[in-house]
Amino acid sequence: MILKYVLKNFRRRKVRTILMVLSLLVSTGLIVAMSATVETIRRSNVDLVAASTGRFDLTVRRTETSPEPFIAVAETRQRILAADEQITAVYPRFHSEVELNAAGEQGSGTLLALDPAEGIGLIEVISGTYQLGGMQAAVLHDTALEMGNLQVGDTIEVAYSFPQPRAKGAISPIGSSRRRAVGRFTVSAIVRQNGVTNAGVDSGVIVHIDDAQAALGLPDRAEELIALVEPALYEAGNAEEAALSVRNVAVNVQAALGDQYVYRLDKARALDGSAQMFLVIQALISTYGLMSLGVVGLLVYTLVMTNVQEQRREMAILRILGSQRNMLFGIVVVEVVVIGVVGVGLGILLGQVITTYGVVPLIEYLMSQEGQAITIQPAVSLAGILPAVVSAFVVLLLSALKPARDAARTKVVYAINPGVADNIQLEDLDELRERRPTLKLFVIGLGMMLVVLVAAALIFAVGFQNPAALAALALVILLFLVVGVVFVFFILTRPLEKLILFATGLISPRLTYFARRNVGRSS
Length: 523
What we know:
Blueprint: H1 2-12, H2 14-43, H3 45-53, E1 58-62, E2 71-72, H4 73-83, E3 87-102, E4 105-114, E5 122-128, E6 136-140, H5 141-146, E7 155-161, E8 180-194, E9 204-208, H6 209-216, E10 221-222, E11 224-229, H7 239-257, E12 261-264, H8 266-273, H9 275-310, H10 312-320, H11 325-369, H12 382-408, H13 429-433, H14 439-464, H15 467-491, H16 493-507, H17 509-521
Parallel strand pairs: 4-9, 6-8
Antiparallel strand pairs: 1-11, 1-12, 2-10, 3-4, 3-7, 3-11, 5-8, 6-9, 7-8
């Protein structure tokens, strides 16, 4: 019966119903879309980080104090593979700053010698054919432009300076002569790299590891070894946990090789540093969600209260016919819940559409403009939707509470003589005899207590460096800021109204004359 009565009200008040549904549709859709965007980027964060640090997980190099600066590839590779079962592959590389000479033009860049079979990262060919081996080299785009517009088929000289070990406790030698080797390569292609190494390498040459070893006279030697680990290590829900898992692999490798090597985890370190960023972004989205849902709640409260005031006579008749107060209370609550189910349900679908066909293509386009080719899968999960749904229904129920209580308190006299219904009746005498606490004083005291608690919690969160606690406190501080602005704006409402009425009075005095009375009497 209640549902039938509610549906009848929807048909009678189509415009108000549509307004409430649209407000929930837009607010919930945007919150779901933003939460899904953060979740999508978080899940794709490994690829985003790998594009800037290189699509490998561990780098092993000799220390500066090691008497032998180069690594024996075959022997060390086997020791690394045996150190941890999570390591899937190990590849040798040369990665060093070199001097370049081509057609009388001199410059500098990075020598990247690798095995093409490793398949790490992406190579975008601008001209020529990307083919290494046989003393062929792929020149990075910036170097091709800086060195007199280098073309495919030209010869480029690469001058490599051998590293000089330093004694422990001493600084690196400066100005001393260093042994050099010059290799001559034929330019086979002009390329850009994405994830082959870090994003800062945009000038230099890429050659085959065998050609570099032959030119330098270092068979079975390399400057560094890079290792890949199981991708499942990065599937942890927490970026910090994923970084620690990769770190454990590096600890096992260090135990196997010793302290004569330097171990770098650029990818895991960047991933760990991004964890706090996502928590802060999620806190900002939560703040926006609460603000927007608060505005929607005020709209729903106003419209539902208007409905209750217009239905006073009907509800009084229902009471005469035997309806209990809880039934009148339930009518208003069910009406708001039905609107919430429709509006929030459509909002979830809208959020999914925005994420899939709007946000994700935009992110991919922006990444491609930065030279990072990456495919992102939209992630609209229950964990991202549930907070928005719960928040929306909590706000709706709070918005319906006061109108529902007013509906339950409808006096029978509204059906007989509405003009005197607002006067004190016999049923109001009980409330006049009771003492009631002042809710405003309770809210003020609670607010003062929360300010002290937030200040104390902030001290501990900063001391223990807890990202989750810092993000939660940032959310609370933003909420306090919003509430404070609301109270300030509430005080400034009348002066702003008078200013606006004064400005409109200069344009349309007659219209302002009538508007001034209505604005002054409204609450």
